[in-house]
Design brief:
The protein is mainly alpha-helical. The protein contains five helices and no strands. The chain is elongated and about 60 Å long. The two termini are about 25 Å apart.
C-alpha cells in the first residue's frame, strides 16, 4: 500500500518536512553562532579546536541560548505533531480540513520560531497557543477516528 498515494498523507508529509527543514535551519544557525563566538557546549569541543575553555564565564551567550530554546520548543511540539498528524492523516479526513489543520499548525510553529528569536511577546505566546489549538483539534479528531 502506497501511503503517499493518499492525499491527506501527502499534505501531512509536505508540512512535516517543511518543519524539519525549519528545525535544521535552527541547528545550523546555532552551530554557526557557536563557531562565530567560539562558545561551545563541552570541554572537548574547545579541545577539538585547540582552545582552553574560558575560565571566567559570565554565563551562557544569550543569542545561542535563545536559538537552543527555540529548537527545544520545536522538539517538544513537533514530535507530538508527527504522531498525531500521521494518525489523523491516515484516518481518511476531508482533504480541506487536513490542509487547514496541517498548514495552521506549521505556520503557527514558523511564526513562533521567528517571534521567539526576535523576543516578540505577546506574538510568541499567541503563535504557541494557535499551534496547540491546531494540534489538539487534530488529536481529538484522530482519537475519534480510532474509537
Amino acid at each position: 500500500m502506497d501511503l503517499l498515494a493518499q492525499p491527506a498523507v501527502r499534505v501531512f508529509a509536505f508540512w512535516y518536512l517543511l518543519l524539519v527543514v525549519k528545525m535544521l535551519m535552527l541547528i545550523f544557525r546555532t552551530s554557526a553562532a557557536r563557531m562565530k563566538t567560539s562558545t561551545f557546549a563541552t570541554p572537548e569541543d574547545y579541545a577539538a579546536i585547540g582552545v582552553a575553555p574560558p575560565v571566567d564565564q559570565s554565563g551562557p551567550d544569550e543569542r545561542i541560548e535563545r536559538l537552543r530554546r527555540a529548537l527545544q520548543n520545536d522538539l517538544e511540539n513537533i514530535l507530538p505533531f508527527f504522531g498525531v498528524g500521521l494518525i489523523y492523516a491516515l484516518s481518511g479526513p476531508s482533504l480541506g480540513m487536513a490542509r487547514f489543520l496541517f498548514a495552521g499548525f506549521a505556520i503557527a510553529r514558523i511564526v513562533h520560531t521567528v517571534t521567539y528569536l526576535r523576543g516578540m511577546q505577546p506574538h510568541r505566546s499567541i503563535a504557541f497557543i494557535a499551534g496547540m489549538v491546531f494540534l489538539c483539534w487534530m488529536l481529538v479528531l484522530a482519537l475519534w477516528s480510532v474509537l
